[in-house]
Amino acid sequence: MLKGVHHVAIICADYARSKTFYDDMLGLRIIAENYREERDSFKLDLALPDGSQIELFSFPNRPPRPSYPEAQGLRHLAFAVENIASVVAQLRGHGIATEAIRVDEYTCKQYTFFSDPDGLPLELYEA
């Protein structure tokens, strides 16, 4: 019935800062960028290499995330990577802090967390 995740939608506080983060720093490819005047909102469609997408929205007067990271709702967004140490080094080269690399006790795979410009928890998972 379900074939996979098509996209994840994120509402950001500072559109230009988040666009730079997801495009320039994480390397997601821009598919489309639209300004919706009636909503005073940008919508940026970004692609990952596997075809899944992130929709980045800006909206005026949006409330902040209630708490980190255990707020009800989406807990975090995880990205699959081939070499976690190399991706962590790239992120740190951009000044992005990451937690220590840990090992999943059930799968024995390495993972770590970092945050986007709005504090949204993001995970790297070595697949």
UniProtKB/TrEMBL annotation:
Keyword Metal-binding included in the entry's annotation: yes
Domain VOC: 4-127
InterPro entries in the cross-refs: Fosfomycin_Res_Enzymes, Glyas_Bleomycin-R_OHBP_Dase, Glyas_Fos-R_dOase_dom, VOC_core, YwkD-like_dom
A Pfam family per the record: Glyoxalase
GO MF term set: metal ion binding
Key words, A-Z: Metal-binding
Protein name as catalogued: Glyoxylase I family protein
Annotated organism of origin: Marinagarivorans cellulosilyticus
Biological classification of the source: Bacteria, Pseudomonadati, Pseudomonadota, Gammaproteobacteria, Cellvibrionales
